[in-house]
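Collaborator request, handled under Task 6.
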Amino acid sequence: MSRRQPRKPAPEPGAARPTVTVCRGCCCGTPKIPRLDHEAQLADLRGSLAGVAMVRRVDCLDACDHANVIVIQPSAEGRRAGGRPVWLGLVNDPDANADITAWVGAGGPGLADPPDILDLYVFSPSRRVREELEH
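Structure tokens returned to the collaborator:
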């Protein structure tokens, strides 16, 4: 007779997965950024990353000069491996979603290198803005 191993408790929702934060405030996700279907962009990220990452919509990340802004936060494992949140700005090209999805699907910050093209989108927000997102 084999002995069953006790099951580990399920991780807290979102704790074991990267988090993709999509700004949809005063500038991001509005007609101020034309020629992009903002709702389709968000729906695509949610669909492509279902079960892989938590995708959340927030009102404003206070980085309006970089609209549309998406922040990729590492999973718990990615953070232990040295990953830190990566801020992407001017994400106004539908092809960028595929690059973001591929990177997050491979593990995201700390676990996988981002596609080189995402270097064009990376920016560093003010310390105050970064601290507000992380808390």
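The cover message to the collaborator said: "Helices lie at 38-48, 76-80, 94-105, 127-134. The chain has one domain: 19-134. Please let us know whether this matches your experimental observations."
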